[in-house]
Write a structure and sequence with these properties.
Layout lengths: L2 E4 L13 H28 L2 H29 L11 H31 L6 H21 L2 H9 L17 H30 L4 H28 L7 H10 L5 E10 L5 E9 L5 H8 L5 E10 L2
Parallel strand pairs: 3-4
Antiparallel strand pairs: 1-4, 2-3
Helix pairs in contact: 1-2, 1-4, 2-3, 2-6, 2-7, 3-6, 3-7, 4-6, 5-6, 6-7
Length: about 325
């Protein structure tokens, strides 16, 4: 007769501690970005710079995306103790990152369309005034990137690496919601740099075509970041974790006695580096679910364990 055991869940089902510092810094960056957005849109229109105008308009979507990031933090904290969320509110933050990635992709399309139009309908640009605004915009973006911290910087450099012995993965240990905010700020900084390059080329080399060209280059870069972020957030949202090294280690731990076999196993993420596990085990020995749960205590990543045991002849 099957026997089952369920580990007692935490009172709030909160498997992730959240990011209060990241939430506060995100609101600060929203204030900075919204202020600079208004300045760039007005200056780009007044002085005739497509690169600067595009940077201002796409910064408006970044402000909206940063609002999603801050809102996701607030909702995750607001409902952290709500028992209706069976495995906590961690994925609210990941969903915020996914929504921000979609907006980042829309920004890319908007910038490339506007830039291509400017190839055929060029406008005169007042370079001196526009350069000043572009430099100020870059400084604002650099301050914003600093506020969002070094954690996301590390994540950006590690997102394409394969799993290693320490279970590192594209989203392991990193705040994907904060990473989304960081990518939006980084996109702003990149387009600011490209705008400055275009303006300098137009001012000193009379290369008016450089302004829309930098808009196209910037949109391609933003599009690549958007695809990367969509990919890693989708993995978490769709519970595509069965290729994680932890899965094979769970099997190895349970089957180490030579008498037990894992006939069904499900592992999914409930925090940045925390997982839930559901396993059906067939054994030839009279063992209980509690015995197997004790074995799995060696894997600190497991925050929630459900075991069902079937004794075979």
């Amino acid at each position: 007769m099957p026997a089952s055991d369920l580990t007692p869940p935490p009172e709030s089902h909160r498997f992730d501690s959240g990011s209060p510092v990241a939430e506060r810094n995100t609101w600060r960056v929203i204030g900075l970005s919204a202020s600079m957005m208004v300045v760039e849109i007005v200056a780009g229109w007044w002085y005739g710079s497509m690169a600067l105008l595009a940077d201002g308009w796409h910064m408006s979507t970044h402000v909206a995306a940063l609002g999603i990031t801050a809102g996701a933090y607030w909702l995750a904290r607001r409902y952290a103790h709500d028992q209706r969320f069976a495995f906590g509110t961690f994925k609210i933050e990941v969903l915020g990152g996914f929504a921000s990635a979609i907006l980042l992709g829309l920004v890319s399309l908007l910038v490339v369309v506007e830039s291509l139009e400017r190839f055929f309908v060029p406008r005169s640009i007042q370079y001196d005034h526009t350069l000043i605004v572009a430099v100020i915009g870059l400084l604002v973006n650099l301050v914003s990137a600093w506020l969002l911290g070094d954690e996301t910087h590390a994540a950006l450099h590690g997102h394409d690496h394969d799993h290693d012995h320490d279970h590192d993965s594209p989203h392991e240990h990193h705040d994907l919601n904060l990473r989304a905010a960081y990518l939006h700020v980084l996109a702003d900084a990149a387009t600011s740099v490209l705008a400055i390059v275009a303006l300098l080329g137009g001012k000193y080399g009379n290369w008016g075509w450089l302004d829309p060209l930098m808009g196209v280059v910037g949109s391609a870069l933003i599009g690549l970041w958007s695809i990367s972020l969509i990919r890693v957030t989708s993995i978490v949202l769709l519970d595509r974790e069965m290729d994680h090294p932890l899965v094979s280690e769970i099997r190895k731990t349970i089957e180490a006695d030579g008498q037990s076999q894992v006939s069904d196993l499900h592992v999914w993420r409930v925090g940045r580096s925390r997982f839930a596990c559901l396993a059906l085990i067939e054994t030839r020995e009279p063992r209980t679910a509690a015995d197997y749960r004790q074995q799995l205590r060696a894997h600190e990543e497991l925050a929630h364990i459900t075991i069902e045991v079937v004794q075979t002849a």
